[in-house]
Amino acid sequence: MTSEFKKIAVIGSGTMGSGIAIVLAQAGIEVNLVDTEQKFLDAGCQNIKKFLESRLSRGKISEEEVHNLKSRITPFLDLKDAVQNVQLVIEAITEEETTKKDLFEKLDNYCNNDVIFATNTSAIKISDLAAATKRSDKFIGMHFFNPPALMNLVEIIRGETTSDKTIEKIIALCSFLGKTPIPSKESPGFIVNRLLWMFLNESYKLLENEIAEKDNIDQAIKLGLNHPMGPFELSDYIGLDIMLEIGDYIRNQLGEQYEPAQLLRDMVNQGKLGRKTKEGFYKY
Fold this sequence. Notes:
Helix content: 40-55%
Radius of gyration: 19 Å
Strand order of the largest sheet: 3-2-1-4-5-6-7-8
Oligomer: single chain
CATH superfamily of the largest domain: NAD(P)-binding Rossmann-like Domain
CATH architecture of the largest domain: 3-Layer(aba) Sandwich
Distance between the termini: 43 Å
Number of strands: 8
Order of helices and strands: EHEHHEHEHEHEEHEHHHHH
Strand content: 5-15%
């Protein structure tokens, strides 16, 4: 089995971007990994190195495979250079609609007309982002889950004018990558995050209203629902700032019943964002 996508640009080298780069490189695809500052690229490359070293130490991958995989990922600071001769661009930057639109407007000018644009947004409407380009038929949601190298699901979200051909190509790519593509119409949060937000937000409210302690809520969910992580462990892993961005967006689109708990907003304002800041609901 082969893929028509031989070279793909991934914009954003954070947790998701670097993880998506690994998935693509593992499948033999050349990856141009792009970010705005060298320190961000260095951090992304370090994430890739740590993941591969972990796999190597456990005998999941050979030294030759590590070398070959690394050789397929090329870091870039220049966006225009990075998207030359690619067949697909996957955006994985901050979950801010205006920032994403500004990026896609630039990409639309830099890329050939046949290049497909995919966004890894967690919640934002695909059609709203596609409106920043002149290729809405080649614009699609391709939502990976964290960590991309280990999670099999990719939500495939069709915009109002996304073509059937674009959908077919991206579903075929997901299958080539060994992922399970699940189609969804565009709606705030799509499938997983629409449901996940309500679940996590109610957990925050349980703690906020002193119904139970966070440790007990986490333990109850793990034992009662057989979840591998409790809601507070999961929130710290995802990032509380990301959860607040998702919650605010869904609330603005769908109404007050989705309003984020004040506890979450307070913690983000205090800079307690989870594992990445060494403190969230728990300390690390």
